[in-house]
Each structure stands twice: as structure tokens, then as C-alpha cells.
């Protein structure tokens, strides 16, 4: 077995494309391509299917990637142990998150501390984010979906809460607070199933025995905002996701607990990887700073949120 070829395969599988792997590791794309082709030819297997500018692992490639992930994780851990240093000068990190707001702050600080790190970010609903980590499609998850899976290491990042927002011309626009029961009979715009926003909100409604009017389902946060602006119903959003928009006014739902914890998660076996460890350290610091600044930001959207 040629370790150079195995390493080339692992880098391409990790990055999802030959060009990104080449840029991240300072080697030429033709060199990586040739090394992977030699590996495939040596064993008579196909490891990648090309998809536009990227690649997708074949079933054999997926199985090999699970092995190489453990192999190079152990190599990096051994190197860190022998070097006795946690300094990072380069590295590539794949992050999956259920929203951009928390993760971008962490990545900005990570980049400030370790300028040589590159990364990709995939935004998906909460139901899929942890699956990406378990299937080795991401190194880190940032999500409000907690799990008891022993393969996953989770760390609480911060607490967030659900709030309501309405068009400025809505009769509630001058109210700072409503009761959950006030929502009975009102049309509400919600995210798709699998979103923690919808899951947490519907759970509270069911627990309180409250039946809203129609639930209008849309696929993205931006679509929720536009649907509310078009008059389809009331919107539900996490406090930290509130952004300046003079069309809307935020309202606190004051008589029930609508708080949700946000977590950072990775595979247990990857906790000691230098780049994963660096992300966890930064996330812990950012989470503490956010907690120190936290407070109700329920106010017109033209005002900056304290969670921003």
C-alpha cells in the first residue's frame, strides 16, 4: 500500500474536490489526480464519481475514507504529542450548521487566531447536521439538536430563545409581549419539518393545548421573513437570527419557556485533532462572551440585536 496515494485520496475526500484539496495542502491538482488514479488502478477500484467541479465518494470510497479518517487522526494526534505544541499553521475544516449566525462568529475568531486554516460551511436543518458528522461528511456540527449517541462529543455553546415577529402594520406591533395562548387561531409561518425552530415551537403549542390557524411551511429563514412580509401569517424565529428590517417588529412570548440550547459537536475520536480542538476552544470562548452579553433583544428590527 502506497501511503502517499492514500493521503492524496484522503485529502480529496475531505475537501470534496481536487482543486480545493490542492489549494488547501499546497500541492498541484494534477499531482493529486495522478496519485488517486494510481491508487485506483493498483486495486482495480473506483473511489470517486465526478459531480460538476467536485467529486462524490463511491461506496468503496466511503468505506476507505472512514478508515483513512482514523488513520490520519491518529497520525496527527501522535505528531501533536511528540511536538508538544498546539499551534496551528494550516488545516482544513468542514463545518455543518443549522444556521449561519453562531457558526460564523466562531469561524471568524478561529481564522483570527489561526490564519492558515481554511474551511467549508454547509447550512442544513437540524435533523441532518449531526448525520453529516456521523457519516464523515463534516468534522464539526453547530446545532440545537442534542443527541445521546455515544459516538458524538457535544459541548453547550449558548442558550437561545424563540420569539415572534409581525409586520409593522399588525395590531400587535406595539406590544412588547404576548401570551402563548394569544396565538390560537392565528396563521403562523414555520420552517420545514426537521428544523429545530419548528420542532421546539410546535412542542410548546401541543403541551399548552393551543391550536393555531393554518401553519404555512417554507424552506428557509429568508422565505419565512418574506412570507410574513407578504401577510401570510406571524413568524417565529430565534432571537439571535433577528436582523434589521424596518418591515417587522419583534414580540416576546412571555408566559412559557421557549429557550433552546445550541451545541457544538464532533466525533469522539476526533476530539484530539488539533484543528477540531482549536474550534472547540474558540467556540467555548465565544459562547462565554455571548452569555456575558446576553439579554432580551426583543425590539424593532431596525435596532441592532445584542446577540449580533
Using the coordinates above, name the CATH class of the domain at 159-260.
Alpha Beta
How helix-rich are the residues, as a percent range? 40-55%
Distance between the termini: 50 Å
Shape: elongated
Topology pattern, helix = H, strand = E:
HHHEEHEHEHEEEEHEHEEEH
Notes on the protein architecture:
Among the domains are: 1-84, Winged helix-like DNA-binding domain superfamily/Winged helix DNA-binding domain (Arc Repressor Mutant, subunit A, Orthogonal Bundle), CATH 1.10.10; 159-260, Periplasmic binding protein-like II (D-Maltodextrin-Binding Protein, domain 2, 3-Layer(aba) Sandwich), CATH 3.40.190.10. It has 9 helices and 12 strands. 41% of the residues lie in helices and 23% in strands. The longest helix is centred in the N-terminal third of the chain and has 25 residues, at 59-83. α1 (3-15) crosses α2, α1 packs across α3 and α1 (3-15) crosses α4. Strands 3, 4, 5, 6, 7, 8, 9, 10, 11 and 12 form a 10-stranded mixed sheet that branches. Strands 1-2 form a two-stranded antiparallel sheet. β1 (48-51) and β2 form a beta hairpin. It is elongated. It is of the alpha/beta class.
Would you spell out the secondary-structure blueprint of this structure?
Elements: H1 3-15, H2 18-25, H3 29-43, E1 48-51, E2 54-57, H4 59-83, E3 91-97, H5 100-113, E4 117-123, H6 126-134, E5 140-143, E6 152-167, E7 177-178, E8 188-190, H7 196-208, E9 215-217, H8 221-229, E10 234-238, E11 248-253, E12 259-267, H9 274-293
Parallel strand pairs: 3-4, 3-5, 7-11, 8-9, 8-10
Antiparallel strand pairs: 1-2, 5-12, 6-10, 6-11, 6-12
Amino acid at each position: 500500500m502506497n501511503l502517499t496515494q492514500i493521503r492524496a485520496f484522503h485529502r480529496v475526500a475531505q475537501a470534496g474536490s481536487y482543486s480545493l484539496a490542492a489549494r488547501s495542502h499546497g500541492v498541484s491538482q494534477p499531482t493529486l489526480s495522478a496519485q488517486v488514479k494510481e491508487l485506483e488502478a493498483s486495486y482495480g477500484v473506483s473511489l470517486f464519481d465526478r459531480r460538476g467541479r467536485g467529486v462524490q465518494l463511491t461506496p468503496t470510497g466511503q468505506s476507505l475514507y472512514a478508515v483513512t479518517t482514523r488513520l490520519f487522526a491518529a497520525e496527527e494526534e501522535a505528531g501533536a504529542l511528540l511536538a508538544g505544541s498546539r499551534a496551528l499553521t494550516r488545516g482544513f475544516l468542514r463545518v455543518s450548521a443549522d444556521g449561519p449566525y453562531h457558526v460564523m462568529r466562531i469561524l471568524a475568531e478561529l481564522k483570527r487566531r489561526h490564519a492558515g486554516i481554511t474551511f467549508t460551511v454547509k447550512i442544513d436543518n437540524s435533523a441532518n447536521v449531526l448525520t453529516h458528522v456521523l457519516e464523515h461528511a463534516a468534522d464539526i456540527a453547530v446545532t440545537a439538536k442534542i443527541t445521546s449517541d455515544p459516538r458524538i462529543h457535544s459541548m453547550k455553546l449558548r442558550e437561545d430563545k424563540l420569539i415572534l415577529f409581525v409586520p409593522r402594520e399588525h395590531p400587535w406591533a406595539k406590544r412588547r409581549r404576548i401570551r402563548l395562548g394569544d396565538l390560537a387561531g392565528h396563521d403562523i409561518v414555520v420552517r420545514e419539518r426537521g428544523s429545530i425552530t419548528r420542532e421546539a415551537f410546535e412542542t410548546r403549542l401541543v403541551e399548552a393545548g393551543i391550536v393555531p390557524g393554518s401553519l404555512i411551511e417554507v424552506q428557509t429563514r429568508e422565505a419565512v421573513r418574506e412570507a410574513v412580509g407578504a401577510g401570510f401569517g406571524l413568524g417565529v424565529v430565534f432571537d439571535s437570527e433577528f436582523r434589521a428590517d424596518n418591515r417587522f417588529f419583534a414580540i416576546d412570548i412571555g408566559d412559557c419557556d421557549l429557550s433552546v440550547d445550541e451545541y457544538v459537536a464532533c466525533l469522539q475520536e476526533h476530539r484530539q485533532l488539533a484543528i477540531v480542538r482549536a474550534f472547540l476552544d474558540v467556540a467555548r470562548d465565544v459562547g462565554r462572551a455571548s452569555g456575558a452579553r446576553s439579554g432580551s433583544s426583543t425590539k424593532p428590527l431596525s435596532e441592532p440585536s445584542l446577540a449580533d
